[in-house]
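I hope you will forgive my troubling you with a question about protein structure. I set the record out below, with my sincere thanks for your time.
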Amino acid sequence: MTESYAAGDNEPALLEVTIGADLEATVARNPDGEALVEVATGRRWTWRAFDDAVNEVARGLMALGLGAGDRVGIWAPNCAEWTIAQFATAKAGVVLVNVNPAYRTHELAYVMNQSGMRMLIAATSFKTSDYRAMIDELRSTGDAWALERVIYLDTADWADLVAGGRDLPDEALAERMATLSPSDPINIQYTSGTTGFPKGATLSHRNILNNGYFTTETIKLTAADRLCIPVPFYHCFGMVMANLGCTTHGATMVIPAPAFDPALTLQAVQDERCTVLYGVPTMFIAEQALPGFGDYDLSSLRSGIMAGSICPVEVMRRCVEEMHMSEVSIAYGMTETSPVSCQTRVEDDLERRTSTIGRAAPHVEIKIVDPVTDRTVPRGEPGEFCTRGYSVMLGYWDDPERTAEAIDDDGWMRTGDLAVMREDGYCNIVGRIKDMVIRGGENIYPREIEEFLYTHPDIEDVQVVGVPDPKYGEELCAWIRLRAGAAPIDADAVRAFSTGRLASYKIPRYVLVVDEFPMTITGKIRKIEMRARSTELLGL
């Protein structure tokens, strides 16, 4: 019986350089190629101009007295300055702290102080968030004790930052870069904690540069490609898989809007002739649900990556068949692993690319273990997904205890995800350990039921959670979003649709028809909140 263990390819070799050195190599190869396009403002940069902008900001940071290892936060929606700051901090050896644009004062104060953030680069406001007012509040109450300076992007502050570095010679930045190592920490990303405060996953040049490189190498990205990036930069999907994926290959980064908008995304694909499109499943669902979806010219697309949460099979099929993304890939991972551990390949058949999360990424080991005994389970049996390799984070910032809980003495990262490895080495995520529903002693994996209910002609999206039950311990509740114009649906209709096709214990007892699901800003479904709200709404 084959164990659930696999290792990715060892070729090509890992990149053993810093992010700044890799960017300069790309600039040298194609200085006049287009590096970055910001659709909202019409601004464009060649690789040479982009690198010049990065160097100016890097020297500006140094002129303000920021040293290698100091922490600088960025709190803003997607914009060109976000990308420039990402590479400027990397060149200066400054650790960039990604701040979720949806944070409010309590969360902001925590990440500022826990990271020891000396400076914050921020928008003045976005949507309903008045960033300046929140920062002023924290500074006035002394709750931002480490913060020395704020640079507001949409004021003269940014120009002053650039101007401040002009007296610093190029040699000063070159000397700083020469002191940096690929193993240095360069990025802190706070994972959205389900209990307690979020944890600061600390990532090195080596971690994220290689993950960006191999994730896009797997979809055969080249300098001829143009990648549309509607996913947020503050998350690994945007800054690693997109930005670093592009810079390692010389592909063009296209920012369609400050935040995800399905129409603006497809318009950018059409107008910029993008060849690659990223998104979490909810983004692709929203794009495919647009009334004028079929009117956009998406013929330039060839590939993309869908990640961030479980990818519905039917949504993936529409990407291939209706969005021209014949080489689309599913990627799986987590912030703590830079993020990608598994990915489907361009040459995979449709079945593998629509029903699995792929196989082990290059230079990465994976295994599925019994969550209680840590024994590696046979292929075909569910267990906890674990991964090891260059991609595993350095640790949680200033939190050795929680680091030791997540990474064992042999370097294996425990993900908390329940997975099954097939005989061919491809994997499926069947849920979170905490999401698994135990009904009357039967282990139920919500994803199986969700995938089945996606085949109902009137259901556009569905999520299944467990709710308390005095007899069985837990019962199933399905949250359903209906397609436009669909007839009403209730629990009886779902039961009728499922009877004879699902085992009776897998048929949801409760159905809630909703307009939207509670989600994080990255599009991940907040099932903990759904369980709590279900229990309340159903009076359980």
In short: The domain at 435-537 is CATH 3.30.300.30 (GMP Synthetase; Chain A, domain 3). The mean pLDDT is 93. The first helix runs from residue 19 to 29.
